[in-house]
Amino acid sequence: MSELIFKLSHHGRCATAQIPRHVAQKTTIPSHLLRNDEPLLPEVSELQVVRHFTKLSRANFSIDTQFYPLGSCTMKYNPRGIHQLAMLEGFLNHHPFSLPINSQGYLSCAYELQEILKAVTGMRGVSLTPMAGAQGEFAGVAMIRAYHHARSDLTRTEILVPDAAHGTNPATAAQCGFEVREIPTDKEGNVDLDSLRKVVGPKTAGIMLTNPSTLGVFEQNIEEIASIVHEAGGLLYYDGANLNAILGKVRPGDMGFDVMHINLHKTFATPHGGGGPGGGPVAVSERLVPFLPMPIVAKKEETYYWLTGKECPQTIGRLSAFMGNAGIILRAYMYARMLGKEGMERVAEFATLNANYLLAKLKAAGFTAAYANRRASHEFIITLKIEAKELQITALDVAKRLLDYDFHAPTMYFPLLVPECLLIEPTETESKEVLDAFADALICIVQEAKIKPDLVRTAPHTLSVRRLDEVKAARELDLVYKEK
Amino acid sequence: MSELIFKLSHHGRCATAQIPRHVAQKTTIPSHLLRNDEPLLPEVSELQVVRHFTKLSRANFSIDTQFYPLGSCTMKYNPRGIHQLAMLEGFLNHHPFSLPINSQGYLSCAYELQEILKAVTGMRGVSLTPMAGAQGEFAGVAMIRAYHHARSDLTRTEILVPDAAHGTNPATAAQCGFEVREIPTDKEGNVDLDSLRKVVGPKTAGIMLTNPSTLGVFEQNIEEIASIVHEAGGLLYYDGANLNAILGKVRPGDMGFDVMHINLHKTFATPHGGGGPGGGPVAVSERLVPFLPMPIVAKKEETYYWLTGKECPQTIGRLSAFMGNAGIILRAYMYARMLGKEGMERVAEFATLNANYLLAKLKAAGFTAAYANRRASHEFIITLKIEAKELQITALDVAKRLLDYDFHAPTMYFPLLVPECLLIEPTETESKEVLDAFADALICIVQEAKIKPDLVRTAPHTLSVRRLDEVKAARELDLVYKEK
Amino acid sequence: MPFIPHSANDIKEMLATIDVTSIEQLFEEIPAHLRVKNMPAIPESLTEMELGRLMRSRAEQDSGLLCFIGAGAYEHHIPAAVWHIAGRGEFMTAYTPYQAEASQGTLQLLYEYQTMMASLMALDISNASMYDGATALAEAILMAVRLNRKNKSNRILLPSCVHPFYREVVKTIVTQQGIELVDVPFDEKTGRLSIETLEKMTHEEIAALVIPQPNFLGMLEEVDTLTDWVHAKKALAIAVVNPMAMALLKAPGQWGHAGADIACGEGQPLGVPLSSGGPYYGFLCCKKELARQLPGRVVGRTVDLEGKQGFVLTMQAREQHIRRAKATSNICTNQGLLVAASTIYMSLMGPHGLRQIALISHQNAELLQKKLTAIKGVELVFEGPYFHEFVIRVPRSVEFVLHQLAKSKMQGGFDLSKAYPHLGECLLVCVTETKTAEDIDKFVTALASVLSCEDHSRDKTEKTEHVRTYL
Amino acid sequence: MPFIPHSANDIKEMLATIDVTSIEQLFEEIPAHLRVKNMPAIPESLTEMELGRLMRSRAEQDSGLLCFIGAGAYEHHIPAAVWHIAGRGEFMTAYTPYQAEASQGTLQLLYEYQTMMASLMALDISNASMYDGATALAEAILMAVRLNRKNKSNRILLPSCVHPFYREVVKTIVTQQGIELVDVPFDEKTGRLSIETLEKMTHEEIAALVIPQPNFLGMLEEVDTLTDWVHAKKALAIAVVNPMAMALLKAPGQWGHAGADIACGEGQPLGVPLSSGGPYYGFLCCKKELARQLPGRVVGRTVDLEGKQGFVLTMQAREQHIRRAKATSNICTNQGLLVAASTIYMSLMGPHGLRQIALISHQNAELLQKKLTAIKGVELVFEGPYFHEFVIRVPRSVEFVLHQLAKSKMQGGFDLSKAYPHLGECLLVCVTETKTAEDIDKFVTALASVLSCEDHSRDKTEKTEHVRTYL
Ligand SMILES: Cc1ncc(COP(=O)(O)O)c(C=O)c1O
Ligand SMILES: Cc1ncc(COP(=O)(O)O)c(C=O)c1O
Question: Less packed terminus of chain B by CB within 10 Å, N or C?
Answer without folding.
Answer: C
